[in-house]
């Protein structure tokens, strides 16, 4: 993984200056200083997620995300929450398949407190037995709530069909059985194995000053350097992708609406074709002018929700279309999706569609420059997942350079595959024969 030197990048309309410093421990500190902003967002990005778990530890990364807020030698769980609330800030976290992120947003004057609380939580969590038992119950309730949401269920079923029963296909929260069986010592071991300085990026954006942030991070995250009895670099396990994916998965639920996901695997995040696929995704299912929204909802009135999305990972990715529609319309909607895929494979997209997709992308990026949280997330993803920092200008240039032929080529490569279908609703698998 490349690690940029502490050089400045200045290229956005608000005058933001991006810098990166790598501490001797390997921890990377990235800042995006925008003097005009009066708020600041800071996040700790750790390169661990579902893909790093064994079957016995399914859900460990998510379990740990909960536990790091539950207390340190310095602060109780209540004191961690109260410290940020007392200055009017926000604090939260999430777990993904290949990373975990903890983040806070405060007024710029309160950044030192935010970094101290964040560093204390991430690097000095007690992971006490009693807290493990408390959060076990909370997570089981969270899993139960997701199981009651057919929109969540259909995506979990789709991921499992595409990526198999390995870590990439499992529910990020794990299973009820794995969460019940996991011990406090197993979670502590997982913590010690993955929460290493070399596996961590701390980002701050907004009214910040780089050298001051580096100083704060060095102090707040210092405990990660102590007591590590295993190598500072760890080898990620293979993602466990299936040789053959499941093409159809149907779960019967007595819902008023059918939930349908149609999609396929794609390339990894490091493939040069991702830009073309992103623009194709925009044309097919992003916004009210997209082809699928117009065809399924506007022209035929078959659904209320129609959208497409892409997820990229280190070795693979997925493209999918989601539709919520009446159960009687599911077969027709599925055929309309297939027909649109076939049309774009054969004919590509138009010049006006490509220009509109590029403009939508540019607007999304520029809107994001006005929000410290979006800036922080941009840097965290870039540095942790790509090992690089791409300037806004360079990013927009790469997107602008995509051609119609490149979009058509990626459509032919990705959308000509057999499609996996996942459906949840009042029907059975035979109804999709």
Summary tags:
single chain; 433 residues; alpha+beta; Cytochrome Bc1 Complex, Chain A, domain 1; seven-stranded mixed beta sheet; five-stranded mixed beta sheet
CATH superfamily heading of the largest domain: Metalloenzyme, LuxS/M16 peptidase-like
Tally the helices: 15
Termini separation (Å)? 46 Å
Number of strands: 12
**CATH class of the largest domain, anyone?**
Alpha Beta
Gyration radius over CA: 23 Å
Q: Spans of 5+ residues with little confidence (pLDDT < 50)? A: 1-6, 227-232
- Taken in chain order, the helices and strands follow as EEEEHHEEHHHHHEHEEHHEEHHHHHE
Determine the CATH topology of the largest domain.
Cytochrome Bc1 Complex, Chain A, domain 1
| CATH architecture descriptor of the largest domain | 2-Layer Sandwich
Structural class: alpha+beta
Strand order across the largest sheet: 1-2-3-7-4-6-5
**Main sheet properties:** 7 strands, mixed
Percent in helix: 40-55%
Global morphology: globular
InterPro entries: Metalloenz_LuxS/M16, MPP/UQCRC_Complex, Pept_M16_N, Pept_M16_Zn_BS, Peptidase_M16_C
Pfam families: Peptidase_M16, Peptidase_M16_C
GO biological process, one term: proteolysis
Protein name: Insulinase family protein
Walk me through what this model shows.
With 433 residues, this protein is an alpha+beta fold. The N terminus is likely disordered. Strand 2 and strand 3 form a beta hairpin. The protein folds into two domains: 217 residues, 2-Layer Sandwich (Cytochrome Bc1 Complex, Chain A, domain 1); 185 residues, 2-Layer Sandwich (Cytochrome Bc1 Complex, Chain A, domain 1), CATH 3.30.830.10. It comes from Glycomyces buryatensis. This is Insulinase family protein. Belongs to the peptidase M16 family.
């Amino acid at each position: 993984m490349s690690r940029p030197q502490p050089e400045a990048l200045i290229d956005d309309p608000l005058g933001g200056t991006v810098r990166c410093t790598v501490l001797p421990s390997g921890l990377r500190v990235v800042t995006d200083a925008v003097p005009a902003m009066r708020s600041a967002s800071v996040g700790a990005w750790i390169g661990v997620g579902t893909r790093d778990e064994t079957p016995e530890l399914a859900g460990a990364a998510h379990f740990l995300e909960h536990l790091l807020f539950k207390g340190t030698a310095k602060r109780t769980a209540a004191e961690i929450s109260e410290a940020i609330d007392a200055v009017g800030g926000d604090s939260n976290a999430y777990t993904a398949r290949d990373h975990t992120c903890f983040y806070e947003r405060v007024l710029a004057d309160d950044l030192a407190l935010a970094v101290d609380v964040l560093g204390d939580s991430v690097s000095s969590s007690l992971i006490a037995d009693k807290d493990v038992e408390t959060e076990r119950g909370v997570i089981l309730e969270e899993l139960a709530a997701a199981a009651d949401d057919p929109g969540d269920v259909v995506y979990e079923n789709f991921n499992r069909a595409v990526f198999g029963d390995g870590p990439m296909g499992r529910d990020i929260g794990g299973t009820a059985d794995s969460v019940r069986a996991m011990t406090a010592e197993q979670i502590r071991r997982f913590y010690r194995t993955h929460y290493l300085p070399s596996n961590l990026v701390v980002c701050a954006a907004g009214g910040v000053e780089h050298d001051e942030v580096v100083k704060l991070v060095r102090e707040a995250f210092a405990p990660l350097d102590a007591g590590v009895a295993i190598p500072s670099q760890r080898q990620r396990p293979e993602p466990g992708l299936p040789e053959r994916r499941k093409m159809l998965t149907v779960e019967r639920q007595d819902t008023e609406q059918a939930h349908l996901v149609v999609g396929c695997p794609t390339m990894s995040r490091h493939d040069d074709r991702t830009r073309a696929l992103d623009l194709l995704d925009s044309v097919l299912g992003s916004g009210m002018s997209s082809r699928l929204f117009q065809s399924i909802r506007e022209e035929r009135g078959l659904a209320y929700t129609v959208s497409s999305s892409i997820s990229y990972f280190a070795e693979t990715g997925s493209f999918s279309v989601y539709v919520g529609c009446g159960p009687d319309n599911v077969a027709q909607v599925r055929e309309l999706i297939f027909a649109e895929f076939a049309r774009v494979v054969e004919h590509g997209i138009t010049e006006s569609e490509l220009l509109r997709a590029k403009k939508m992308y540019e607007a999304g990026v520029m809107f994001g420059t006005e929000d410290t949280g979006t800036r922080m997330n941009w840097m965290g993803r870039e540095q942790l997942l790509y090992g690089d920092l791409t300037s806004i200008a360079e990013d927009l240039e790469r997107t602008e350079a995509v051609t119609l032929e490149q979009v058509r080529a990626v459509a032919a490569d990705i959308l000509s595959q057999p499609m996996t279908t996942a459906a949840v609703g009042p029907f059975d698998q035979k109804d999709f024969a």
